[in-house]
Amino acid sequence: MMSRAFPRGAVDLGRRTAALPEDGSVPAPPAPMTADWEAARCSVRRLAQLSPTTLSAGHSLPMAGSTLPAAFLRFARHFKEPARGRYVREPARSDAHGILSLPPTPPDPMGAVLRGAAAGAALAAVALAIRRSMQSVARRRRPTGSQARAD
User: Fold this and answer.
1) What are phi and psi of 122, to 5 degrees?
2) How do residues 116-148 score in pLDDT, each as one tens digit?
3) Going by DSSP bridges, is the β-strand pair 98-101/93-95 parallel, antiparallel, or unpaired?
4) 144-147 long-range contacts, Cβ below 8 Å, gap at least 24?
5) Biggest CA pair distance of the chain
6) Where in the sequence is the domain holding 132, given as residue range(s)?
């Protein structure tokens, strides 16, 4: 089951994207596509040892130039996983036959929001029902105009 917050149509990334750095630095791999951070770290280090002058990773634009080997080596030395994410503490495991195991699905924050809203609506409905009931009892206890005059 996909998260209720998962987009159902096109997503405009607009200002959330940026061109590759002009200083020759190598950007980190996209976090959502890295299911095993330790394997990614080892892979980056092995590739950096090859001192490539051209790099075409598939998830970014190709990079080339004489400064690439040094920049890639710096990137490999400072490579680190994000602070949080589904695959940060436990990687996905697979073999030639497919997926062997996945880390637990993270909690759906939208579910908590919806449950909170439902609980709030239920409390409001109960409070309204109690208020109306009390008003109804109070009206029944008030003397009508003819009863008030008879006393």
Assistant:
1) -65, -45
2) 999 999 999 999 999 998 888 888 877 666 655
3) antiparallel
4) none
5) 106
6) 109-150
